[in-house]
Amino acid sequence: MTVEPFRNQPIETFGTEEAKREMREALRRVKAEFGRHWGLYIDGAWMDTGEKILSLNPSAPKEVVGSVAKAGRAEAEAALEAAWRAFRTWKDWPQEDRSRLLLKAAALMKRRRRELEAALVYEIGKNWTEASAEVAEAIDFLEYYARQALRYKYPSVEVVPFPGEDNESFYIPLGAGVVIAPWNFPIAIFTGMIAGPVVVGNTVVAKPAEDTVVIAAKVFEIFHEAGFPPGVVNLLPGEGREVGAYLVEHPRTRFINFTGSLEVGLWIHERAAKLAPGQKWIKRVFLELGGKDALIVDETADFDAATEGILISAYGFQGQKCSAASRLIVTEKAFEPLMERVLKRAERLVVGPAEENPDLGPVASRAQEEKVLSYIEIGKGEGQLVLGGERLEGEGYFIAPTVFTEVPPTAKIAQEEIFGPVLSVIRVKDFSEALEVANGTVYGLTGGVYSRKREHLERARREFHVGNLYFNRKITGALVGVQPFGGFHLSGTNTKAGGPDYLLHFLEMKTVAERF
Ligand SMILES: NC(=O)c1ccc[n+]([C@@H]2O[C@H](COP(=O)([O-])OP(=O)(O)OC[C@H]3O[C@@H](n4cnc5c(N)ncnc54)[C@H](O)[C@@H]3O)[C@@H](O)[C@H]2O)c1
Ligand SMILES: N[C@@H](CCC=O)C(=O)O
User: Fold this and answer.
1) What are the tens digits of pLDDT across the range 30-44?
2) Which reaction does it catalyse (predicted)?
């Protein structure tokens, strides 16, 4: 098999008239299919159930983007059964052939790129560039894991020779596992969490988040067209607490690949550790969870560059990224010049319906809106509200970019993940205190430093304890293969998605020794 070296997909910023025209056309086409219904996808076939999950447009929640059949326990059983049946043969496919299927899926995704971007705009409220970056990431996961998997081809492990014996060790897949995904990267994370285990010979039952079932169905149209054998990938939309929990506790679930909140992640960790009757393995559990990510700016920083990095990190996709900057830690001498710039730029940010490509679209759902507004109320008692702090006019879930200053490091809005367009600014006396505050939460996902002082950057490299640390740039938008992604502490098990070790999580090593 010959493949070109991996290269990241370009992200469209819609600067040209042609790109804008293409996107408007894609939005028109996706809107024309509003209300369409998809089934579950089990054992290579689409099937319906009596119940539906409706997907709403958060910019205009009266609009139904589409619906997907809702799975219950019977469908979960059927999907797991199909996945185990498929595993019997899929595990023995030559690695090149499995990789080729991912490359085919990537090619199909590229052909449908604008349509998928438009679906993200309507289903979850991403602006055009955020949508483009996410579809690019989904394609990257397919392309990257297809190539990485070739490293584990039989017999790939070097062992020390021993006289009179033939010793070999090789990797084998685990079995049928469950993928449970969040709504905030409903194509990239969803695709990546499926593609990784599957390409090395596992099979998967995938449960998308309830708010993003349409984009999940489109991913499965692509898997179907790519030609995955029946049962290798199965789509099981349903309620997390019902069908998700059922799959987590099921004795035939071999591994759980979860991305989502700390609360649900810890619950899964606990439940998956319990041996169910008939279960004969210890489930492998991967949990990629939340963040309370901090950007530090010191007095030597380029304040203009820092301002741009802060705004995109704090407000990109309305702050609904696990990597988002939700804390800004500023040294005393940097405070005034920096905050003057940040507030001047932030108050000019445009909030509106995602299809109009504003700086910020709506937050994802009514539940998100309520959660963010409740944190804003808490913040009013903890810091000084200097920008935003309110819901904006309009049908959609629009929240103004919000800034609180003089926030104590121990405040709730400086400790808990808000997952919205809210920035808590903490003033510190010097860089040492900045690092101490930055490390002072239960999370450890992303972080960043704006400084021109080499000593500060090197100190942060050693002492700022996060999985993804960025200097003099935004702290979001890790690129597949370039910045393997995952965090420390309660941010999760740090699988480093899009990194060279990711696929190993879904393999185990077998050793065979033969005495001659
Ligand atoms: N670390 C990362 O890479 C990363 C990436 C994206 C999002 N996140 C985190 O995800 C969170 C936002 O996503 P969310 O609101 O969809 O998270 P969530 O935990 O509410 O839901 C995630 C998924 O879990 C399912 N679920 C809910 N309860 C369940 C249960 N009891 N058993 C099994 N499944 C269950 C949901 O239906 C959904 O599919 C944020 O905390 C964010 O930081 C982390
Ligand atoms: N990997 C994404 C964040 C995913 C979590 O929401 C980033 O790097 O910004």
Assistant:
1) 999 999 999 999 999
2) L-glutamate 5-semialdehyde + NAD(+) + H2O = L-glutamate + NADH + 2 H(+)
